[in-house]
Amino acid sequence: MVQNVAAFFRDLEPEDFYLLSGIEQGMRFSEWVQREKLPKYASLTSEEIEYRIDRCMQHELIQRKTIQYEGYQLTFEGYDALALRSFSERDTIDGVGAPLGVGKESDVYEAMSFQPLALKYHREGYTNFREVDREREYTADHNHVSWLYTARKAAEKEYEALEGLYPDVSVPRPVDQNRHAIVMEKLDGAELSRARLESEQVVGVLDLILEEMAAAYQRGYVHSDMSEYNVFIDEEGITIFDWPQAVPTDHENSDELLERDLTNIYGYFKRKYPSETPDSVDTGALAEDITVDELDSVRSYSDS
Ligand SMILES: Nc1ncnc2c1ncn2[C@@H]1O[C@H](COP(=O)(O)OP(=O)(O)OP(=O)(O)O)[C@@H](O)[C@H]1O
Ligand SMILES: [Mg+2]
Predict the structure, then answer these.
(1) Span from the CA of 58 to the centroid of ligand 2 (angstroms)
(2) What residues sit around ligand 2, an ion, with C-beta below 5 angstroms?
(3) How far apart are CA 42 and CA 45, in angstroms?
């Protein structure tokens, strides 16, 4: 599990961040940055580097590996600290609060500002990277794709999708993005998977979800990871979140992905609310209604 760097963030000094961003720079070229290169990357003297390495190692912001040479890389905590510093410098957030969700691919925390926000650190690429690393030990890496890159790309993709969808589609309002992290509106309510709908609400809620999926399609996106875990529900309605794997509608598989999303959501309703959910639903036809902009037929889906 990745530690919450917010707990000791205030103890970090500007020079600690010089070292962290120096190592970040070096990691563009190799997984383990040579110790000799650090003074140049970090613009610090050798003695200062020594001291900063100790501090950053103590906080587990960096790690060391000595095989052919002494090398350093950021841990996810180190990368988190860099993102957090950017958010704090541009006054996006004033503090980090309780965890909202901790998963394999992300850590989400409450964040403080004028209004409650959510801070999501992407963790994509970490497990893969670990496996690759173990298999081949260290060799001069010509074409390494680091977890830094994979996680940052995921955050960029998710943020871009949110910006393209908000406010026409019910998604969390995007606030800021840096490195592998995004800041967005904090959602109230609960995941659909944890809600227990009343009989008379079931079809209405399913309709709301289908309408938002149709609206997202109109805005040029297919979610591609739709499930009861990526929909929030409260008295006001539903919100679809978790968009890093969204594909544009002109992507060659977008219609298949849309149909798979529809099958997932419909399947969930059918399993959890068998008697309230209509039986004969053709998700292929539903997908077609969405792609040819037959919003009315999607909306009156419950009558079918
Ligand atoms: N904007 C938000 N407001 C409140 N809670 C959120 C928000 N975004 C995410 N969460 C919480 O964090 C959890 C994980 O977020 P998300 O689904 O975006 O990431 P994930 O990569 O799917 O994580 P996992 O690997 O656990 O599935 C969500 O299930 C939800 O409980
Ligand atoms: Mg999710």
Answers:
(1) 32
(2) 230, 242
(3) 9
Question: How far is 92 from 122, CA to CA, in rounded Å?
Answer: 18
Angle at Cα 108 formed by Cα 127 and Cα 96, nearest 5°? 125
Ligand number, closest to the Cα atom of 115: 1
Q: Which of 1, 31, 20 is nearest to 106 (CA)?
A: 1
Q: Is the pLDDT of residue 140 over 50?
A: no
Across the beta sheet with 70-74, the strand order is 33-34, 70-74, 62-66
Q: How far apart are CA 181 and CA 59, in angstroms?
A: 20
pLDDT number for residue 295: 66
Query: Do the Cβ atoms of 119 and 109 come closer than 8 Å?
Result: yes
In this structure, what is the dihedral angle of CA atoms 70, 76, 80, 83, given to the nearest 10 degrees? 70
d(CA 15, CA 223): 41
Give the position, in ligand 1's atom list, of the atom nearest the Cα of 229: 29
> pLDDT above 90 covers what percent of the chain?
84
